[in-house]
Structure formats: C-alpha cells, structure tokens
Amino acid sequence: MLAAGAVLGVAGALPILTGGGDDPAPVTGDTAVATTTTLPVWVSPIELKIGPSVVVPASLEVSDGVLVFRYEVHDVVPMGDASREVISEIGPGAAAAPARWTLIDTDFEVAEEVVGPTNRAVRFPVPAGFEPTADTTIRLDAYFLAAPVAFPFEVDRTSAAWYDIGPGLQARVVETLEQAENSIVIVEVEGSQALTQWMVIDGEGREWVSSSRSMLGSHRWTLDYRGDELPDPLPLVVRGLEWVRVETDQAVDVEPILP
Amino acid sequence: MSDDALRELLASPLEDRPRRAPEWARLAALGVAAAVVGFLATVGLSLLVGGHDADASAGGSMPTGETTATTVAAPPEVADGLTLQPAWIMERGGSIFVGVHLLQAPGSDPDVPEAAAWALRTEAGRYVGYLADHSDPVTPGVFTIEFPALGVDVDEIETLLVRPSIGSRELTATWDLDLNELPWAGPAPGPIIEDENVTFRATKIRLADNGGYVEWSMFGASGQRAVVEATAVWTVPGSDEIRKAVPEDQLPGVPLQRGAVMGGATSTGTVALYRLDDPEEPTFRSRWWGEPGPVEIEALRIDWRAVVFEYPEAGIEVPLTGVPVIEG
Predict the structure, then answer these.
(1) Entry pTM
(2) How far is B199 from chain A (nearest CA, A)?
(3) How many helices (H) and strands (E) does chain A have?
(4) A36/B contact by beta carbon, under 8 A
(5) Using an 8 Å Cβ cutoff, are B86 and B323 in contact?
(6) Cβ separation A34–B22 shorter than 8 A
(7) Which A residues in the span 50-69 are in contact with B, Cβ-Cβ below 8 Å?
(8) 3-state secondary structure labels for all residues of A50-114
C-alpha cells in the first residue's frame, strides 16, 4: 500500500511538472494563447478539489438500469495532536464530501443528491443499454463542508415552536418533566439523519449534566438538568458539526475509470 | 426517578461515538501519506533541476502548439506550505460566522498555527474582533470563526484578518480555600492569576461535589488571548479519599464524542469542571459523578493554568469578496 501510494504520488506530481493538470486547449495560429489552469495534485491527477479535501473517482459500474459512481474523499490538511488521537480511533474522516452530482450524456441528463457527507457513491438511473463512454460527463454540482459550531439558542419552555439552529435544521422542545432532584427536557430536531449525526443538542451551563440522543432512532434528545429551577427560556446549545452546502461546477475525467 | 435509574436510561456519550473505520481505511490513509511523500520527492527533484517554472504563467503571444499555465490567485499563506481559504459567511443569532479551512501544499509538512486571533474589517474600515474559533478534532484544519454582529451587515464585510500566534507563556497559580462544605459559590478570593501584564479574574464561580464552573475574564492584555484551565482537589472529613474535578476536555473519551468543539484562545470564557469518578483511573462515568447537594469537605485546592498567546500587530489579510453568504 505504501509503495502504491508513493507511486500514485509521483504520478500525481507529473502533470504539474510537465505543465499539465488539465487537458490543454488546442492552439492554432501564431498569436493564439491557450490558457490552462494548473492546480496542485494531492492524490490523483483526476481528483476534484472541494474545500479542504479532494474527491478521487474510483469506479463506474452499470447494473440493472443504474450507473453507480464510486469515489474516495481525502482531507489535505495537517492534523494536530487531538485529531491524531481521534483519527487513530475512528479512522480518517473527511471535512468535505460531494452533495449533488449530474450525469450528462448525449441524449439525457440526470441529477442525484448524495444521501449524506459520509456516503462515497452516487446512483444514477440510466436508460436500458446505457454504457458510459469518454463523452459521458459526470459533474459535481455541490458539496458538503463541515462547520464546527457551538451555537447557543433560547427556547420558550411552554412553546412548541420550531427554532432555526443551522442550515436545514430546526429544533423545538416537546416535553419538560420536573422531578424531585432533576428536570428532564426533551428536544426534537428536524433535519436529515445524515446531517445531524455529528451534532449534539445540550443545555448551556454546568447545571445541564448530560444530553443523550434517543436510542429509538428518532431525532429526540433527552437533557438532564440539575439546577435549582428549570429556567425559562431554556438556554440550549447545538454543538458539533453542521454541514454547509457549497455550490461548485467540476467535471470528472471519466476515461480512466470507464468499465 | 432515581439517579441510578436515570443513568441507565440515558445513553453513554461513548455509545454515540463514530464507528471505527475498517483496517483498509487506515491502510488507505498510509497510502495517501506515501503518495504525498512520493509527490514531494518528485516535485522536489524537479525543482532542483529547474523543471518547474512557477512564473511561466504570464500569458501573451505564444508560438503555435504551446500552452501556458495560469496560476490560480493564491490564497494567503499562514505558514510555510499552508494556506487559509474562506468558504462561507453566515449570520445567526446576533453573531456572524465565517467558515475557513487550511489547505496543505502537496508534499509539504507544515506546522499548524496555534491559537490564531481573528478580526473582520468592513468596507468602511471598521474592525470587529472575534468571540471564538470553533474547531472539531474529527475535521482538522476546518474552523468556524464567530464574531459579534454589532450592527455589521454581512454584505459590508470586506476582509478577514488572521494573526497566527507568535509566542505564548504559561502562568500558574494555586488557591487553598478554607471551606468545609460544597457547593460553594464565589465571590472569588482574588485574581485567578496575574503577572505584570495581565490579570485573570473569576467573574462567576461555583463548585459542588459533582463539579462546577468558572467564568473568567482577562484584563490589561490588549491584543492577547488565553486558554484557561482549572483543577479542583479536595478531601472529605474522616476519609483518605481524594476527589478531583477537571475541565470537560480532560474527561476520558471526550475527543471521541460528538460535539467536542473547542473554542480556541479568547479573552473571556468558562471552564466547566467535572468530578472524576476515580482520580487515578477515571472512566466515562465521570460526566455524571458526584453529588449536587451539600457535602462536607476539607482541604480544597484549585490549581489554575493559563496559556497566554501573543500576536503580531499586523494580520494576514484574507479577502472575503465573493465568498458565499449562506442562510443560517
């Protein structure tokens, strides 16, 4: 693997050294100027750069009327000690990931959303008999970019109103339960599971001793308050990773991965 | 509901941690590292023999059949081989958030700047200092910088200024408090820490057997920022047991938990303290350990540590023109 990686790195560097990187436009005439944009290569000459990461196309496969396009995502940022500790435990993550792709062929075009930032494939429905060729275009239209946040917000105890807590995310209090030694507050979050799995809803302050996501698969959080009296409005905070959607327009070089 | 029943009902944060990556992912990471090394070796060799002319991008007339490369406008470099790129701007809840990320040059091995200070500059020349820079160890190199809105329209923001720290100094102090019962709430018996340049004060303080918090502010240190830590140690009468409360980021397993967002160096902040279930070998149960109610104690000591970061006068300018403003 290491040797293969080193070879990949050398191969990736070569287009830059030879003035490549993108296909040069044809030049005709003495005064014509062809201008190409030379971007660095981190992992592969066919990678796409999205924020602090690169997307490396891996394979194309047609099966049962579906074109499956798989890819890898690699972060190209330095890591601090805390990240090394985390990544040694959970494996490498990615701070950005594709969100929407479009497949364009001579007689049809189809756009598909990726389920979430941890997914590494997109599936396009295609006409019977379709096979991708060098003229097939797969375009990246948008990507998710991680946004670490610790965003406080206040919620009326007795209101069931929704509050905006992030891009595409809302929260509301569905129940408060005052007990002899503590109070329980249940908060519901509206948003896709894929976009909320890296964030926490918690109380703001040391009196909030714990926050737990429902084990039943719902988007409810149970907060444990151990203060004198449950405050109103409730001081809550959303912490962790939200995902910002960034528009882009980059085409994949499909030729090296054609089946 | 009893405490024990509640603890059983509530899931451990460790159960929520991201799933462990398969071994191939680790190998892939090593492969990527090797790729970077290979890239460095190749680029380095080429540069040595003059094979890469970064300035060959001027455009103009070219002989037939030749092409030229136009270098994309380079984002500002914050360290050798490390650039800073703005990604988005968002206004939410009285704050303006700016998303930025680092980008490592292929083949480079840059040092990550520590505890940078940030500011916004508007078209009218108004400056706004930051409140916090949020980061998460799961996504290294990605930061969300929070600023107070203070009536600033996001459309007026022109430039992000970043000043990577040029040095730091560590200050420590110890309080020995004559207390015989917890909970204890301030007032603080004096400055937390001070030297000839800076004074740290606890503006609000509360400590119970299950932990507590300290809200702190630094005074007299214009342009400096700090990270403050506190550790409380006490004993109970008639027992040799030593009890200890530490900041949240020192709890076992916290870096693996979702929501382990760090706020960076600031001029005010809060240290949340959690009582360890076992001072020698603490477990994840520490988050819920201790009694919130009255407990007799003796020999309470609080150890303070502040790391004060210093910054250059001039900041590195990061243009924000054209950076998308997203809805929060």
Answers:
(1) 0.74
(2) 24
(3) 3, 15
(4) yes
(5) yes
(6) no
(7) 51-52
(8) ECCEEEEEEEEEEECCEEEEEEEEEECCCCCHHHHHHHHHHCCCCCEEEEEEEEECCCCEEEEEC
Please indicate whether, in this complex, the C-beta atoms of B28 and A153 are within 8 angstroms of each other: no
Residue contact B43–A36, C-beta within 8 A? no
Nearest neighbour of B259 by CB, restricted to A164, A181, A202: A202
The answer on pLDDT for A33 being more than 60 is no
CA atoms within 13 A on the CB side of B216: 28
Tell me the ipTM for this assembly.
0.79
B328's CB contacts (< 8 A; 6+ apart) are: A164, A166, A167, B90, B91, B92, B93, B97
Q: Residue A37: its pLDDT value, please?
A: 55
Phi, psi of B43 (to 5 degrees): -65, -45
Report the C-alpha gap between A75 and A49 in whole angstroms.
Answer: 10
**Which of B36, B95, B213, B248 is most worth mutating to test chain A (most A CB atoms within 10 A of its CB)?**
B36
- Model confidence over B97-121: pLDDT tens digits? 999 999 988 888 887 777 789 999 9
CB pair distance less than 8 Å for A75 and B140: yes
Q: Would you mind telling me the total number of residues written for chain B in this entry?
A: 328
Distance (Å, rounded) from C-alpha A186 to C-alpha A172? Answer: 9
Please, where are the H alpha helices in chain B? 3-9, 23-48
Looking at the DSSP assignment, which residues form a beta bridge with residue A53?
A50, A75
3-state secondary structure of A26: coil
Please give the span between the terminal C-alpha atoms of chain A, in angstroms, as a whole number. 23
Amino acid in position A125: P
Residue A149's closest CA among B251, B136, B254?
B136
Tokens of B111: 């040092």
